[in-house]
Amino acid sequence: MSNAGQFIFLIMQKKVLDLIGNTPLVKLSGFDTGLCNLYLKLEDRNPGGSIKDRIALSMITAAENQGLIKTGSLLVEATAGNTGLGLALVAMARGHKLLLVIPDKMSREKIIHLKAMGTKVIMTRSDVNKGHPEYYQDMAERIAGETKNSWYVNQFGNPANPLAHETTTGPEIFRQLDGKVDAIVCGIGSSGTITGLTRYFLKMKPDIEMVIADPAGSVIKDFVTTGSFGEAGSWKVEGIGEDFIPPIADFSLVKAAYTITDQESFTMARKLLKKEGILAGSSTGTLLTAAIKYCLEQTMPKNVVTFVCDTGNKYLTRMYDDSWMIENGFKTE
Ligand SMILES: Cc1ncc(COP(=O)(O)O)c(C=O)c1O
Fold first, then answer.
1. pLDDT tens per residue across span 11-30
2. Does 192 sit in the ligand 1 pocket, CB within 6 Å?
3. Could you give the CA distance from residue 11 to residue 6 in angstroms, rounded to a whole number?
4. Rounded distance, CA 269 to CA 261, Å?
5. Relative to the CA of 186, which ligand 1 atom is closest?
6. Residue 241 domain boundaries
């Protein structure tokens, strides 16, 4: 075989896990972004459909390397769904079993997808906070503690979570914009994304502005702007917003934070589909609303990046369904 032929053959040898990361970056053209260029990094293009594939690969690989798990171990995790899908993908390839504890507000599509992958799913209450025995994270930790040959993945405290973004997401953004990136708008779930990006850009471009998009009801914005927070409320956007400050959080480069309502988020996600043809998840509506607000406030041209963290296919029976929008008071007709 010729050298070129061998190269093509090697490319075709790629496994599914090799497709994680190296996601495209697109420039938005259908929105008024003032003096700024606004780019979306399409994390829905990961094989599990979300940004969480990156951390699933990183956390499982680290646990294997540290001898915390071996073939056949049971992995237990608390997740809004996307981390679960990423873990299911990697666990399947590496011969591990998986049990997930998921709050009951999460979309049916994610649960159906997970069960179809052979994952055991335990649903728990969405209306209780940290410290309650039925809170999804407390429940997952307890189950892992009570089960032999199991490991609590714990994306909220696992250093391999931010490491995935420090070593992949950050360098990709830097490379894709030739280093000319001025601000990144992030949502906060486990805080792995913002923490990893912060660590990378502290080394590469410490004057970058990190911007937080936070659902109304979450405590993150209050914490970063005032240093304290009260009791959390509830919100319907999935995957971002918290009722506590994740232990791995690094907010040291945060220059602005915006509170975004569910109504704004869902309306913006639907607008993104209509204007640009991008079918994104509910949190993309939150991030994009905050990113546009930030862009319009700038008095100098800036290159701003935000994320399509997951695909809108997971929300077809929710925010993309007019009946659901009307029933939930987000649309009148
Ligand atoms: C659906 C979804 N999951 C997760 C995240 C990021 O979460 P984390 O803070 O856990 O990295 C985002 C960020 O926007 C998101 O939209």
1. 566 899 999 999 999 999 99
2. yes
3. 9
4. 12
5. 14
6. 3-46+165-327
